[in-house]
């Protein structure tokens, strides 16, 4: 790896690898590490991805070139998939993979307990943007974190310092596509077409065409791409450990061009402290034009582009001031020629690279009263090694355990695997009619495996333990409600249900309003949002310190860590994407969590086998607005328009606009902005699911309803007292309560409960 000219730190250039050719391209272009995925369990199902044999091949190839390979397992895991995942881990521990990139909290627990040699990196899907989250991820075993793409350089610098205090590395995306939504908090694809981003099937609704907005835009959610090419000095100053390029669905040509450009930039800065000023090659491959406004903390209208397609040709036409048809065609021809030249350069560099398996030849020898000897020749590209192993026990004239070609081939054929290809067995020097115990044969085979594995012991496979399903805390499920407006406090007088009060995502510095609210109304249980950046996280922690509530619900792992440190009982909110038993165990055992909402993305079949830890509550939301995405950017600039050129500090606290966007199928979505909240988009239907009460009253301790006005946009407000009365009636078995609710909630769906992940 390269070192900076200032403090001799290693700066990793981390490249995408969607297929073998892209990985080869990254290696020859100078990547220090490549991240890639298998056919399962990764967040880029649209990439070509690798078979396990190919993964082992690219690990061998990369290590020959001092490049590391990280495997993406960055999706939520379903209960019925845990066995398959465990089998994969049993293979990965002996694969020499350099790290795994993880989203699901349950994977941390599995790896920590059963596969501690695997190095875990926290995916960007974990929405890491405050110091408490760094501490949370460190606590559960992460060695590095990929920071949220929305952060600015000062925020990155602050979080990196916190990470380094805990021996955690930080990773920042420096090139490629930008999501309009916070990663891990985008459900638009899941809601609209049933393809969840949390399962690697994002259909990119943010790139879709919508009916023209009042501001005249047809692609109002489409951001330009991320280029930090000229921000390298600031990233080095922030002490970021890894510079990550996005693009696992891109091909080898793209990967080579971008990685090569970045390698040259890093080398130039390391050697001279200066930057290259030519980024022209980055404009020759796919891009949507570029914006570094997230890094600069300057969120303007210029971050958007009303076209999700490749901007490369348009850029070169503008740069060349081409106006006539002849000039424009010449620009196209020149760009095509440049791409061909880069392609030929790449082709020549990867020509000698192969992921072919090394070939093994086994030669067995031995006579009576001699040890059984095996000589193994391992041949790969221009390289042959010979290993010799012998048995402790001597061969004897055959008694019961015969040793012949049939027995030995059967025993040693398992070396024809992801790592090796057996060319042949040779038994010419092995005597006939000889015997040896199976115990000694097994020991011989283990010795061969040890030698082939660079004299490192092979880690034996382990079985997935069966978790005990502990009894629920409440014999009968209770109701809980969420409010976010002090005008709704009167609802507390109408019910014995737990009442959660949703805090905003942004606070006025030093504002004691919410501290006073909770102290004056001790029945209210604080509910913390998913995104809390900078001062807003600090203010949230101050609320915990001043109020010292008995219990909270949090969708933010940073607040969860603070509650854990203070000894405050905490429940994992529905936006922590909890889908399996091991995620519950991670939360309980590592951070003393007392309960969790099960994700509303999974269906009844995927819920039914989840096992709760002892003394742990399970909660499920049966009525709420369906969040599609939350953004740090402003949705109103591209929809109804906004006079402000960029988002200001006061926008979060003051703005409460609401509008809709309508897709080309005529379906409208509420664009909602609460005071103190981030701009968000909600489905036109409410989530309404009484089936869960019928199906899972023996499983869930608490069913939850959201009675806030969030996500309703300009819709008519519901009679909350009536809603509360009838939901309580359903739990109590009142005959007509379901009918009354159906009459009140006319636009609703429980599609996710049916389709699942």
The first-level CATH class of the largest domain is given as: Alpha Beta
DSSP E strands, number: 29
Distance between the termini: 40 Å
The tally of structural domains comes to 3
Structural class: alpha/beta
**Morphology:** globular
User: CATH superfamily assignment of the largest domain?
Assistant: Aldolase class I
Largest sheet: 8 strands, parallel, barrel
CATH architecture label name of the largest domain: Alpha-Beta Barrel
> What gyration radius follows from the Cα positions, in whole Å?
29 Å
Mean pLDDT: 93
Estimated helix fraction: 25-40%
Could you name the CATH topology of the largest domain? TIM Barrel
Strand residues, percent: 15-25%
Please give the order of strands in the largest beta sheet: 2-3-4-5-6-7-8-10
Number of helices: 24
The parts where pLDDT drops under 50 for at least 5 residues are 1-6
Summarize the structure.
The protein is an alpha/beta fold and 757 residues long.
Structural notes for this entry:
This protein has 757 residues and is an alpha/beta fold. It is built from 24 helices and 29 strands. The strands form four sheets. It has an eight-stranded parallel barrel, surrounded by six helices. The chain has an eight-stranded parallel β-barrel with strand order 18-19-20-21-22-23-24-28. It folds into three domains: 2-178 and 225-273, Alpha-Beta Barrel (TIM Barrel); 359-452, no CATH class; 478-625 and 687-755, Aldolase class I (TIM Barrel), CATH 3.20.20.70. Mean pLDDT is 93; it is low at 1-6. Helix 1 runs parallel beside helix 2 (52-64) and helix 5 runs parallel beside helix 6. 32% of the residues lie in helices and 21% in strands. The two termini are 40 Å apart.
């Amino acid at each position: 790896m390269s070192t900076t000219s200032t403090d001799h730190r290693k700066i990793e250039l981390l490249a995408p690898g969607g297929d073998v050719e892209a990985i080869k391209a990254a290696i020859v272009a100078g990547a220090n590490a490549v991240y890639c995925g298998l056919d399962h369990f990764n967040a880029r199902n649209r990439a070509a991805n690798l078979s396990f044999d190919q993964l082992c091949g690219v690990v061998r190839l990369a290590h020959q070139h001092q490049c590391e390979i990280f495997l993406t397992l960055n999706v939520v895991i379903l209960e019925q998939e845990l066995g398959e995942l465990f089998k994969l881990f049993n293979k990965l521990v002996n694969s020499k993979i350099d790290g795994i990139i993880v989203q699901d909290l349950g994977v941390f627990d599995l790896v920590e307990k059963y596969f501690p040699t695997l190095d875990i990196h926290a995916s960007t899907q974990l929405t890491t943007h405050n110091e408490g989250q760094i501490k949370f991820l460190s606590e559960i075993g992460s060695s590095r974190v990929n920071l949220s793409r929305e952060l600015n350089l000062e925020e990155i610098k602050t979080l990196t310092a916190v990470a380094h205090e805990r021996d955690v590395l930080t990773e920042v995306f420096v090139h490629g596509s930008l999501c309009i939504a916070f990663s891990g908090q985008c459900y638009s694809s899941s809601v609209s077409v049933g393809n969840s981003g949390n399962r690697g099937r994002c259909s990119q609704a943010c790139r879709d065409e919508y009916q023209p907005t009042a501001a005249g835009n047809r692609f109002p959610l489409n951001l330009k791409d991320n280029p930090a090419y000229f921000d390298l000095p600031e990233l080095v100053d922030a002490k970021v450990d890894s510079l990550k390029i996005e693009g696992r669905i891109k091909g080898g040509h793209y990967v080579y061009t971008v990685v090569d450009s970045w390698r040259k930039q890093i080398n130039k800065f390391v050697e001279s402290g200066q930057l290259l000023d030519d980024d022209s090659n980055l404009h020759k491959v796919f891009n949507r034009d570029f914006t570094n406004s997230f890094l600069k903390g300057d969120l303007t209208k210029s971050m958007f582009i009303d076209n999700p397609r490749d901007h490369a040709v348009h850029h070169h036409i503008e740069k060349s001031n081409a106006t006539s048809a002849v000039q424009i065609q010449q620009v196209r021809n020149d760009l095509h020629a440049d791409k061909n030249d880069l392609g030929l350069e790449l082709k020549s560099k990867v020509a000698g690279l192969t992921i072919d398996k090394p070939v093994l030849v086994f030669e067995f020898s031995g006579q009576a009263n001699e040890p059984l000897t095996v000589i193994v020749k391992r041949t790969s590209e221009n390289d042959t090694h010979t290993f010799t192993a012998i048995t402790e026990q001597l061969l004897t004239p055959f008694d019961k355990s015969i040793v012949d070609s049939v027995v030995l081939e059967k025993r040693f054929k398992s070396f024809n695997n992801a790592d090796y290809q057996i060319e042949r067995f040779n038994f010419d020097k092995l005597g006939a009619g000889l015997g040896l115990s199976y115990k000694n044969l097994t020991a011989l085979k283990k010795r061969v495996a040890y030698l082939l594995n660079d004299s490192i012991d092979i880690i034996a496979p382990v079985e997935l333990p069966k978790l005990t399903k502990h009894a629920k805390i409440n014999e009968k499920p209770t109701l809980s409600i969420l409010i976010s407006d002090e005008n709704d406090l009167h609802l507390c007088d109408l019910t014995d249900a737990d009442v959660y009060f949703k805090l905003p995502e942004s606070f006025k510095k030093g504002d004691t309003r919410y501290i006073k609210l909770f102290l004056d109304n001790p029945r209210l249980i604080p509910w913390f949002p998913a995104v809390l950046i900078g001062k807003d996280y600090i203010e949230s922690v101050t609320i915990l310190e001043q109020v010292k509530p008995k219990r909270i619900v949090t969708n933010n792992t940073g607040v969860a860590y603070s509650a854990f440190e203070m000894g405050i009982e905490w429940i994992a909110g529905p936006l922590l994407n909890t889908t399996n038993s091991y995620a519950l165990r991670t939360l309980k055992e590592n951070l003393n969590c007392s309960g969790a909402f099960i994700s509303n993305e999974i269906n009844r079949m995927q819920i039914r086998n989840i096992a709760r830890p002892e003394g742990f509550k399970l909660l499920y939301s049966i009525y709420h607005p369906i969040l599609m995405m939350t953004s740090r950017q402003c949705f109103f600039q591209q929809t109804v328009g906004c006079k402000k050129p960029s988002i200001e500090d006061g926008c979060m606290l003051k703005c409460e606009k609401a509008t809709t966007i309508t897709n080309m199928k005529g379906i409208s979505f509420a664009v909602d902005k609460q005071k103190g909240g981030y701009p968000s988009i909600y489905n036109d239907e409410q989530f309404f699911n009484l089936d869960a009460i019928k199906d899972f009253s023996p499983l869930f301790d608490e069913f939850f309803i959201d009675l806030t006005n969030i996500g309703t946009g300009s819709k008519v407000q519901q009679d909350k007292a009536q809603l509360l009365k009838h939901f309580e009636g359903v739990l109590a078995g009142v005959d007509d309560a379901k009918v009354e609710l159906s009459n009140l909630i006319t636009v609703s769906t429980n599609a996710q409960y049916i389709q699942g992940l």
